[in-house]
Amino acid sequence: MVQNHLDPTTVIFLGDLFDGGREWMPPGVASSDPHWRRYGEDFWHKEYKRFGNIFFNEWLRRGFQGFRADDHRKLLASLPGNHDLGLGNGIKVPVRKRFNAFFGEGNRIDVIGNHTFVSLDTVSLSAKGQPDPATGRQGAMDGEGYNEEIWGPVEEFLTNVKDTKTRTIGRAIRVQNSRVENNLLFHEVLDIQDPLISKSVHTAYTPKANLPTVVLTHVPLYRASGTPCGPLRERLPPSTKPTEDGEYLENDPQNAIRVERGVQYQNVLVPEISNEIIDKVGDVEFVFSGDDHDYCEVVHRGYTSPSGAGGIREITVKSFSWAMGVRRPGFLMLSLWNPLDEKDRSEPQSGSEHKHPTIQTHLCLLPDQLSIFIRYAILLAITLLALLVSAIRSTGHDRNTAPASSTNGHILPFTSTFTSKPKSDTPPASPSSNRTSKPHTHAHSTNGLAVRSTNSRTRLGYGFPGTDAYIPSSSLHGDDPLDERWSRHSPSNKNNNSGD
After folding, report:
1. Looking at 372-499, which runs of residues are DSSP E strands?
2. How many other C-beta atoms lie within 10 A of the C-beta of residue 200?
3. pTM for this one?
4. Which has the higher per-residue pLDDT, 100 or 400?
């Protein structure tokens, strides 16, 4: 969605691509934590494939949809974090080699939008200042070669970073101007004894541009404890309101990144490494870091910025994942504008002795995913409660609206006093006399049921009639086989039999 709506020309990750990459060991290396020993190389490859399906596939798909070759689209994911490799002495060299094989070298220089981006593997460089638990030595800090296989490659890159930066800038500008990409060498014939052979090779073109430099690091640079991060920090906002000038407290521990370290993590770099990075890279104007998961913006006034901004500005970018302790994940959008003149130099702002700002940043927030899940859960609970209440009301309504019956819920009517009907030898009245008989009288019961009088005759119901049932005489002479049985029990037949 981000790529479809914003169409970025470059996407940069600042480390911690996997949650447990440092623990999913390659063959021959065992994790120090027994919990992670059941995971291995296969699990790491599954997570790499998952990461590629989310980010790489969409990037490649959009690359084939109308983008030109000169758009210089880049996706940089080679900067490692402490969750990818570990930190300092906890880094296993085979783990780092695997990461670099799949994502690229962690120390590199890229020219993007006429800005020089220098990526540094600071999680490995941090081993330079960490003591050996057994001997207490601190690697190069004590002039020793302890754990140099971890921090050595980063140190070598920093030593040559200025020369590498110059060559990279020259190559990028030549490509922009449609020139030959590689350096052009002088065509000279030199004697084997000539001392120039042992010196560095001269080039036919030396770039005059000195593009603004941006440092990318996973671990933030050192700052004094309590240095505030600004109002955009989510978890720990400023403890006080800003002044009339919009300034906040210079020391606000609630709003700051805590200066501390632990097992396989370190919130900020040590001062010695931070100073080394700024001095050796040179002309640093901006620093972007990660690791903290929340947004933090500080100005390191102890360093001098080439633009004269009063210090080097550093932004710790917010996590892209909502599972990292922030309710609103996000990312940082950069707008780069640094046009060059005909001499390949940055154009100064008209009427000002300082160059115009070439970088603009904007914090982009993603939806509060946890709140969305909570709303879905509340809606589900309300729906289930509504269905339960509806079912209970429906059951009670069915009971209250049952059809009224003259029997008050009983199968047959009853009276409170049972009386037996006196026997009589008087033959029953004929059908004709029955039609002119008086209406039946009813006694009133206390429970609202009508009680038949003793003078009413029994109606013909289902089954065989009682002794007082009346059977029309016409039914005694039918062909129905039951006529004979019915005639034996009829009152008229009794009288006839008694006469015999």
Report:
1. 442-444, 450-452
2. 7
3. 0.71
4. 100
